[in-house]
Amino acid sequence: MRLASTLLVASATLLIACTIPMVGSGPAVSSSAATASGEFVASEGRIFDLINAQRRHQGLPPLVYNEQLDRMAKIQAKNMARFQKMAHVLPEASLPTLADRAHYVGYPFGRLAENVALGYPSAQTVVEGWMSSKGHRANILNGDVVETGIGIARSSAGGLYFCQVFGRRRSSL
Fold this sequence. Notes:
Elements: E1 2-9, E2 12-19, H1 41-57, E3 64-65, H2 67-83, H3 98-105, E4 109-118, H4 123-131, H5 134-140, E5 147-154, E6 160-169
Parallel strand pairs: 2-4, 3-5
Antiparallel strand pairs: 1-2, 4-6, 5-6
Helix pairs in contact: 1-4, 2-3
């Protein structure tokens, strides 16, 4: 399933996209527990590097890590895993929308975009999936965003939920 849509919120641009791998896209992910605080640090760093490699390949400057966007991505990944639902809007969560999460962490956005995914076994495969999707690819290669944050969470059923948030501060427009 793939979804790409554009929303206008308070004169800022929000772009969202989500994806689930097609059957046979890779091996199943182990549901074994690991340390909660550092389980996905290496994979999140690998996604960051792979996304910036894609941008460089297209002649775009690399994205800069932003702690606020990273918090937003981790909030969404954890909520998707908690509710076992891949979506940009989770009405059952305390911060249901991308704009809600931006306001919560204090990110004064002029541009925001979000990619989400479910069920990919690795950083490499989720980036490949995003680059094969028109909406995700557009977010990754959007020259209007300059910062990013990445979150990954595992549901109680073992599924991996991915979220990458892209942004540009209102003051830098």
